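Entry 14. Ran structure prediction on the chain below.
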Amino acid sequence: MVSGYLGWVKPKKIEELKGITEGSLKSKIKRKVLTKGLHYKLVDGSVMIHFERLDAFFEEAAV
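Output, structure tokens:
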């Protein structure tokens, strides 16, 4: 677990810290599993993922 607040990060950082691949994240976006504006957003054509919200999403899914 990473301490502190990271906020919006690139998918590579999610892969580095959580082991969730960029391909897996893109697949979840394409299938609308993740919500635009809540879990991810586009900035100048690049996908940004909200680290803490994604973490909470997976914690809830594990219950």
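Helices lie at 11-18, 22-30, 51-61. Will compare against last week's run tomorrow.
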